[in-house]
Queue: 2 jobs
Job 1
Amino acid sequence: MEIAVISGKGGSGKSSISAALISMLSNVVAVDCDVDASNLHLLLNPTWENEYQFISGSFAVVNKDLCIRCGKCSQLCSFDAIRVVNHSPIINEFSCDGCQLCMRECPVSAISMENNDKSRICVGHTKYGNIISGRLAPGEENSGKMVNELRQLSRDIADRQHRDIIVLDGPPGIGCAVISTIIGVDKIIVVTEPSISGFLDLKRVVKLLHHYDIPIFVIINKYTLNEETTSSIIHWCEIEHISVIATLPFLEEMVKSIVGGQTIFEYNPNSVVSEKLKVALSLIVN
Amino acid sequence: MIIAVASGKGGTGKTLVASNLYRILSENNRSVALVDCDVEEPNIINFVPHRLQREIEVKEYRPTINSDKCTLCGKCAEYCSYNAIFCEPRSHYIKVIEELCHGCHACSLACEYGAIESSSKKVGVVSLYSNKDKICIAEGKMEIGNHSAISTIKATKSIFDTSEYQYIIYDSPPGTSCPFMETVLNSDYVILVTEPTPFGLSDLKQAIETLKLMNRPFGIIVNRSGLGDNGVYDYIKSNKYSLLAEIPYDQKIAKLYSNGELIVDYLPEVKSLFEKLVNELNNL
């Protein structure tokens, strides 16, 4: 079974809740799909075993000795990545999308592509099974493609090691990396918080999920910050036929567990949050 | 001056800082524009007075194949770096897979038969809002189901320029990958908002590494100070980074924010904190 944990709004508690759920299981592959801000390993303290190179894409490079300064590359670029300064093309590798059009069309073959090859995929094990973590190198892109690779790897490992559950800790937002995280999973947990922003972001992410026919479960984190908005979210979920499987209070204990590099369930298995998440997990898994 | 408010980690308080900074700058009679670049989940207009003036559609190029002209030669599929054209000559099948297309136009240059026709797809909307009769807020919103936020971010940023506004504030999307980079690309200064936890520290480091590659100057605001540990402070100190401000952890702030209020309107001590921040920015 593949379970994705996403949120729309960042900082609502995806990683700490994912980690807590993982630490209540014993035969799980944990996947950190938040590849440009990966944090899951900070709570699960894995022993890393393997590291793979990930080619996130490529960018164009101009050979100045061959360039005849015709400016064609700059005119053709759809990504505003090539500026002409003193008749010479300057490529901004952060804007370059790697489409290769300039390379193909350059009349003197002065343009070549270089790979973005600094990103890594790390595989390790924890007390609860395996962990796979994507580390997109600073400045490198294509997080959706990396998530696809992480998920393929997680399925291979789950098959080989007979793991029954894969938990995917997702990125915020609704873009490519989120879409790659949710396609084909069995269940989705959406973590939200009771603020205007949290509520609006929940609505947008649920709208995205309507494109896919996957059961959705909502967890309202830090509900004590605003009980009125919490009620509104619960009411809205009822209308949308989405089950709210936990409302978690804001506890300083939660922050302390993160500081201590532990999941809340490891830090205090009797905490209200742990108790409520145990119930939530049984509702999802069964 | 273009100031981008960003963070690696989500939920650290970017929108809180951007909206309150906007309020203080407007109160001081500065000409200031606010731009919501978090186009996947835009929120900032809920915090500031606004009146909708205009909406602009953001479109991206998409190819359509004219089957009368197409010879199924497959050159377009070969040119496409995103596997967005599937061509199977033996079964006379060719299809554009819209979700994978990045709109680079390579296929239309590849085709020698004029079979690739240009169409466009709506990928987002930019809404322009006024405050006190002057258009000064732009919000980008990506279409739900679209994969890339980049075109919508670009279109949203293009609304205001520094010839007309003394300050332009960008509220950045979370993370450090393409949407973040697109947002900070042309900013003069980046305010990174973090929180004093191991998560905040780890994501702050990633954001700083990216900004260094991009040669963008930056300073740091620690939000929810008092909660968590000293890791973030030690890191800032040992690297001699600029700590612009600390916003204390306070249930009152969390509650006001959750209701869409500006904290500088309610908490004088926070207001003076933001006034100090404005002074620091003026001295850059």
Job 2
Amino acid sequence: MPETTTARETILGRIRATNNTVNTTTRAADYQAIERAYQQSASMARAAILKTFVERLHEYDAHVFETNADEVAATIAEVLRSRNQKSTIVAESFPQEFLPAGFSWRHESSTTTEELNTIEGAISECEVAIAHTGTIVLKGARKLTLLPDRYLCVVYERQVVETVPEGMAALQKYAAEPLTFISGPSATADIEMTRIRGVHGPRFLDVVLVRN
Amino acid sequence: MRISLFITCYNDTLFPETGKSVVQLLERLGHQVEFPFEQTCCGQMHYNTGYQIEAQPLLGRFVEIFKDAEVVCIPSSSCVAMIRDHYPKMAEASGDTELIRAVEDLLPRVYELAELLVKKLGVEDVGAYYPRRVTYHASCHSLRSLHLNDLPLRLLRNVRGIDLVELQNIDQCCGFGGTFAVKNGDVSAAMLTDKLRCVENTRAEVCTAVDNSCLMHIFGGLHRQRTGIKTVHLAQILASTEDEAHR
Amino acid sequence: MTIRVGEAAEAPSFQKAAFVLLDDTQLRKNVRHATDVITNKRAIVVGEQHDWQQLRSAASAIKEHTLQHLDHYLLQFEAACIAAGGHVHWAADADEANRIIVDLVKQHGGKEVIKVKTMTSDEIGLNKAFEANGVHPHETDLADMIIQLGHDKPSHIVVPALHKNRQQVREIFMQAMGLAELGDKPEDLTNAARHYLREKFLKIKIGVSGANYLLADTGGVCVVESEGNGRMCLTLPDVLITVAGIEKVIPSFRDLEVFLQLLPRSATGERMNPYNSLWTGVHKNDGPQHFHVVLLDNGRTRILADPESRQTLHCIRCGACLNTCPVYRQTGGHAYGSIYAGPIGAILTPQLFDMQHSQSLPYASSLCGACYEVCPVKINIPEVLIHLRGRVVREQQTGATLEAIGMKAMAGIFLSSRRFEAAQRLGQIGQWPFVSQGWVKHLPGMLGNWTAVRDLRPLPKQSFRNWWREREKSSAKKESVHA
């Protein structure tokens, strides 16, 4: 579109008139030279990292269930039963062996958005979890973990890192994928600064933490 | 030590008592005080209000007058902040290499009073006596430009007879802000009210600070409201002894 | 080309607006409460972050580096976004941005859009442009919804409706949502919002958002939010239009490790906000299949050209400066007349206009420096305020105002100690008409603003230098007596 081409050239022209032209080498070198003296690797022992992760989740009112790999299905079953959850949708990539018997599962690929809106809860894995901030990071599965009122995430201990920089490093290979960082249920403090949970996203967050 | 006094334009005119106290204090501590008569103003009011062109020559005057000083003492943290934060930039902007060098050379010798006492002269107990209930307000420049931190409080704690009480919201701006006090008089008054509330809650007789600019504003309100509370510059408290009738 | 910053060009001066707002009892109570709560929360989470200062330094350096190579990073972003299936548009000013966005909506046959919070859209006046073209925009951020449904204006960057209490929100919701009954507990109000908006999220096919960060290396976009409405608007519609100022670009995905630590702590006093969404172009079978980014200038390149104040463009819209500002605390955001209020608003708003409007804003500060202390990207706001005051004086003052005459006269006086002493004498003599019972009760003109609320002692009879002179004389006399 001719108009926006003009705007593009105008804007770039103004920027270039201000900044000295530098060749690529200088810019890349300048970028590398930026001082990053903030913490970029773990400072705590594994046990402390996991403990912090669980604490943070509790602070966000998430429920945490620690279990072994061979008991994941049983744990999920218990959670669903205790909630009396009648419908559950599962992410495409979720391991079949972790789905307990005796439940009916909806699947991402065969569910429309309107149907998704009527389902009570969702289950998925995550890519990485950050202990310091109590964050779980999902790749894809965006609608699934948004519309139902409950969300259960299976996190493996080995996926838990201490710091945000470590988390970003672990996500680098998925940098161009749809990523969602979740730190607790949705919240707002827009009415008299009272923090209220669950405006639009799931109001209930369960985390099944699988020990190595 | 030979200490050159930059009294500041407003202290000279409105708060000569502060200047007298500085002289008496420094002489009591065994130092020689000089007062170059050529001095007028550091240029802060003009610079901060947008009249930077008019402030520029005042930089040159200051540097010329004090270039041979062993040490310069200034009983006003906002003026020291002006000199420290802005003179180097102003000199750069002038392109005058002599001036740039002169500023660089002089700045390390310029001190606010509390800084001078504690950091340069190494003294925290100046032998003062001031039997009053006193609260200390931390002026913005002393905190955020000069990073005086608790130097003034350390000096005050060593004053005999003093009843020092902590001021709530000590680091909240009093609302003076130079020409802000008249250009935005309503908001300045609202900010003053908050500061006065904190001062009155301490039940102090005296509110002190290292800047008479803040104190003039705070006292203006304290007196208008007939609180009976006074303001006194730190220098006057430190100069006070059992012999002197400073109280 | 017309720069627009909401309705700031028509707003009354800060002084005029503040005078009225200082009488708004509820506003003042709410602003105090909100700013106290957030500053306390912020202090805790910042205090526990041992490398806070290092993060600030890195963020400031990344922003400055980006600005120095802004053309490169914008082009890199454009190429990567297009390669991932997105479209990139450039808008030199507000009108152009509105035209592009409205045209896109019409191309897709939309009569309604759902919007995620974006101050950039307020800046350009997008909602007005939509309405004028038969498109109804639905704000989905709770506070923006309260503002929109209540026909009001935002008063804070992060908590725009902080000037409202729950009873007012209840009334607004009942009316706008057609509810016969509604409790006034915050939970009741958010539940009402949840139901009201769920239907819209599922039905409306075009979403409009802003961007917290544009990632140059991947062509990705990052949106930071709390409520989940962002995720709804970014995932459910068929078409997504993102409008972002050109200063939102950062070099790489990795750089988020710095900003995602600084922003939530500064904005809401949390270690991390509930949801961050990152997407790149179009994802097959996932989310909007049509994605457009509108890159907005609207005065930013002119700010970039001013070496003294281009640090203004570091801003990541955290609102920490507002929360800590002792001036904002008294008046709230409406006094600034701009979508960008508080300390950052005082420097950003007039600069977008190249100082043609909002000239009172750089003076809406006592220069206390609290904002600079909390700014996560180290914008030296007091320094910029002083620089902009200089621009106002040099560029805008037509004719000689009383202030300019007075300031120039005083400057002349300060150039000579002889003149200074003469002025002191003049003051000592000339003050008497204003002195009554030993106090100055009233001063003329603007100086009257002082005596309106403060008493003033008259000039002492003897200046310091005259005391010194006499002391020298008498000690010289003593010496000559002893000699």
